[in-house]
Amino acid sequence: MAAQARALLDLAFTGLGVRRVEAEAFADKAPSLRVMAKVGLRHEGTLKEEPLHLTRGWIDGVTYAMLASEYRAQS
User: Which of 48, 50, 53, 64 can pair with 36 through a Cys bridge, CB separation 3.0 to 4.6 Å?
Assistant: First the structure.
């Protein structure tokens, strides 16, 4: 999964020239959080009861992000 995430970051920053990429996930989805951290996105915040889960109701969400300058620095 990390390889696909890296490929998407490369497409966004190199292919499309975007300035910033954000990713969001439910706070209790550890595999998703690991992938975001592994590819270099930084944790920007945890939002209390922000996303609505279909069966569990309002739960915590997290936001990770990376700037193009950060992507270039890690390449």
Answer: 64
